[in-house]
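cron nightly-structures :: item 1 of 1
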Amino acid sequence: MAALLWPLIPLVTGVAASVWAWSTGRRRPGPGRHGTWEDLDRHQRLRTALGRHEHCQAA
């Protein structure tokens, strides 16, 4: 009988996660950020700025 209860653990976990997502307003799973390209541009500008700063110190 105990072996039959093991499949209930993932089932209960999935139901609990679904209820939590529904109650917090996250209807779609995954990150809710839509500014992926803006984040990439900001990251590249930061890497460029840090690279220049390190280059200036070495010279």
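cron nightly-structures :: done
The mean pLDDT is 79.
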